[in-house]
Amino acid sequence: MIVGTSQIDITPRPGIELAGFAVRPQPSTEVLDPLAVRGLYLEDKQDRLLWLHADLLAFDAPFVEEIRRKVERECGAPASRVLLVATHTHSGPASLSANCIGAVDPSYLAWLKERLLLAARGCLTNREQCHAVPVEGRLELGVDRRQFASAHTDPRLGAVGLRRSDGTFKAVLLSYSMHPVCLRGSWISADWPGETARILSDALPGRPTVLVSSGACGNIDPPQVGVQPEQMRAWGRRVAEGVLQKFLAAVPNDAPSEQATFRAASTIVPLPLENWTISQIDEHADRCLADSAGRHEFYEAFALAVETWRKTMIERAMRREPPCTPAEIFGVRLGGIAFAAVNAEIFSRFTELVRGGGNRAIYAVGCANGMIGYVPTAAAYKEGAYEVEWSMLFYNRPRPCSGGLELLAEHARKIVAELS
Predict the structure, then answer these.
(1) CA distances from 159 to 8, 173, 237, 314 (A)
(2) CB 137 within 8 A of CB 247
(3) Which DSSP string do the residues of 319-348 spell out, in sequence order?
(4) Do 58 and 95 meet the contact criterion of CB atoms below 8 Å apart?
(5) What is the mean pLDDT of residues 63-76?
(6) H or E stretch including 31?
(7) Does position 306 have pLDDT exceeding 60, yes or no?
(8) H or E segment at 404?
(9) Which pLDDT belongs to residue 357?
(10) Alpha-carbon distance 90 to 27, whole Å?
């Protein structure tokens, strides 16, 4: 299998607004650690894939499509085999059109497009023969922040290393389901995924390019939100240590096996949205405004988000837009491990459903190829709370219908099965 890698800095200057929190000091004041886009190119006799992995919150769908078209035109990789993933750090510059969670700087997005394409081209000029080294760890670190009866976490930490014949590593892919919300100040930071990537790259022979995904983290936070940088780094180190010794102990393969190949596939699922009438939209908006908990948690940003969402949803209703949105499931199987990527903030139960209740090595990658918002479990809809009642106000979108996560998991399970 041919593997290409690149790593390009995408750190903005302080003064740019940060994304992810409605209540935080704005704008940014200093760079705590650098942000990067990490590129991974895979090619064998049957397929190829270009994976761009950025230390950002998320991407808008039109931005993703533009990058895919440009990569196809400039690099030759088919648009259908371009995967653009955000780590979902809440301490990166605003990169997504949303309400009250950071204003997008158009000049930064224009520069970001150039950097993403530079990363894509860099992968193609730095290619080597590698084989896959899959490992799995277990880490009881993330907590279900909702604290309802349906509480669920996923302690499985999945990773695959791409190793040269001399035993050194060229790249690592890792997924662990935990929100990158350790920090809540005005620092620019990649949060724990960036720290995990740095530690693994420094510790593994060959200084590999490390792509860290926050997985199916829609309901999972670190043990505490808004900690000091030292604590964030300690948690990032714990994630890295969950697989580091397993990589170091893996016996080098002089003769790559059949696991050296990879497969990729994707599908678009029409995800049903709640098709509310104008009176139902007004009813929900008014109920939110009357909820003192929302004002207490988000202050004046809450009312602004509610009214902006109300206006947007009424305009959608008047245009009679279809009550569905395209959800993309992108599957990658590599070295005996499968990754199921989704353009959403998905709850951790998603991965368990895709695994089919078994012990299969399947891991989720959220915030991939766009962002349609939170997709909770059906059980969560009965319980309510932020992800169900308020998150669509900040994403400025309709809410997916109950059962949406289970629907996406069913399609992801089929995609993963096809890749076998």
Answers:
(1) 22, 5, 15, 44
(2) no
(3) HT--SEEEEEEEEEEETTEEEEEESSEE-T
(4) yes
(5) 94
(6) strand 30-31
(7) yes
(8) helix 404-419
(9) 80
(10) 13
